[in-house]
Amino acid sequence: MRRILGIALAILLLGGVAAVAILGGGDPPPTAPKTVVKGVIGSEKSEYFRDPDVVKALADKGYTVRTETSGSWAMDQLALKDFDFAFPGSSEPAPEIEAAAGVKGAQTTKPFFSPLVVIARANAAKVLADNGLAKMTGKNSGTLLMGPYLKAAAEDRNWQDLSGSAAFAELTGRVYIKTTDPATSNSGALFLAATSNVANDKTVVSDQAGVDRTAPLMQKLIRVQGALEPSTDDPFRAFISGSGEPLILAYESQVASLLQQKQAPGDMVVLYPDTTVNSPHTFVPISEKAKELGSLLADDPKLRELAVRHGFRPQNGVPEFTAATAAHAAYLNPELTGIRQVSAPTVKILMALAARAKG
Fold first, then answer.
1. Terminal-to-terminal C-alpha distance of the chain
2. Minimal CA–CA distance to 296: which of 323, 275, 318, 314?
3. What is the CA angle 227-258-37, rounded to 5?
4. In angstroms, what is the C-alpha Rg of the chain?
5. What average pLDDT is seen over the chain?
6. What's the per-residue H, E or C state across 85-107?
C-alpha cells in the first residue's frame, strides 16, 4: 500500500510541475538589459531625475540614468569623457561643452525650459510695490519692474530709504536680490544677461564698450551679496524654511514644483521680472549611448507630464503647464503675460560681464 501511495504522489507532483510550466509559472524570464548612461546636470533637475516615476518611465524605455550636478557654466571644465551627456540649464553653455567634449555639432535637444523669477517675502513685496519697484497682480504674485529696481540699486538704496519699510524690522540694509555665482551658475549668468540688457538701453550687450558701460551697475548687483551660492537649490530651500534673504532669484520650476507637491509656501510672493531671459535646458549628448535620450525626454508623453510635475515647461507645452498648475494660478503666470523676453549675450561677453561684476 505504501509503495502504491508513493507512486501516486510522485505522479501528482510531476503533473503539478508540468502544469506550472504550461501555465507560465516558475521564475520570470530575465529582463532585458538597460542602457546605463551617466550625465552631469544642473542641480535644479536633481529631483526630476531622482523621482521614482521618472526612473520607472526611463526604465520602461530601456534607460538607467545616473547623474552628478555642476554649475552649468562650469561643465566645460569637467572631465567630460567620463559622462555620456551634459544637461546645462540653458543653451548658452552648450557650445563650450560640445567643444570641450570633442563633440562639436552634436544634435542637442531642449526638452523643457523655465523662466527666472524673484521670490519675495510678503512684506518685502509690499514695500517694493508701494515704492514703484514692483507691481502686484494678486496677493501672491506680481511683476518686478526692472528699470526702477536697477535705478534703486545704482543709487545704493537701503530698505530704510523706502517708504513703509520701518514697519518691518526684518527689512534692513541694502536692497538686493540674492543670486547665484554668475561665473558658474546658469541662473546667476542669465540674471546678468537680463539686467545688462535693461542697463544697455534695452539692447543686448554685444561688445567691450557695452561691457564697460554696464559693468559698474553689474558690480553693485553682485558685490553687495558677499559669498555667492553655486546653485539655486540652497538659497531656495533656505527661503522656504523661513531663513535667507527677503528677495531671492529662483527658477519658476522650483516654485511650481513646490506648489504641486502641496508643500507650504509660507508668505512667498512670486515676482516675474518684466525683462527676462528664458532658460531652455539643453541636452548635449556626448556618447552614442545617450544620443536618443534627449529626444525621449522632449517627446515622450509620460516624461513630459513628469517634467511639468516638477515645474518645468515642455517645449510648446503652455497648455500642459497651464492645466497642471491651474490650482496655483495665484502664484504663477502661465502665459508670461507682460514679460519681455530677450536674448542673452554671447558666452564670451556674458563671462566678461560676470568677471567684471565679481572683480
1. 99
2. 314
3. 80
4. 26
5. 90
6. EEECCCCCCHHHHHHHHCCCCCC
Dump pLDDT digits (tens) for 304-324: 999 999 999 998 888 999 999
Alpha carbons 70 and 182: distance in angstroms, whole number = 13
pLDDT at 33: 63
HEC string of 158-209? EHHHCCCHHHCCCCCCECCCECECCCCCHHHHHHHHHHHHHHCCCCCCCCHH
Please state, in angstroms and as integers, the Cα–Cα distance from residue 184 to each residue in 45, 71, 72, 219, 358, following that order.
Answer: 16, 5, 6, 16, 12
Whole-angstrom Cα distance, residue 246 to residue 162?
14
What is the value of pTM for the model shown? 0.86
Residue 262 is given by DSSP the state T
pLDDT exceeding 90 applies to what percent of the chain?
A: 78
From its phi and psi, is residue 110 left (phi > 0), alpha (psi between -120 and 50) or beta?
beta
Look-up of cell digits 552614442: 288
Q: Which three cell numbers stand for residue 26?
A: 516558475
Cell numbers describing residue 77: 571644465
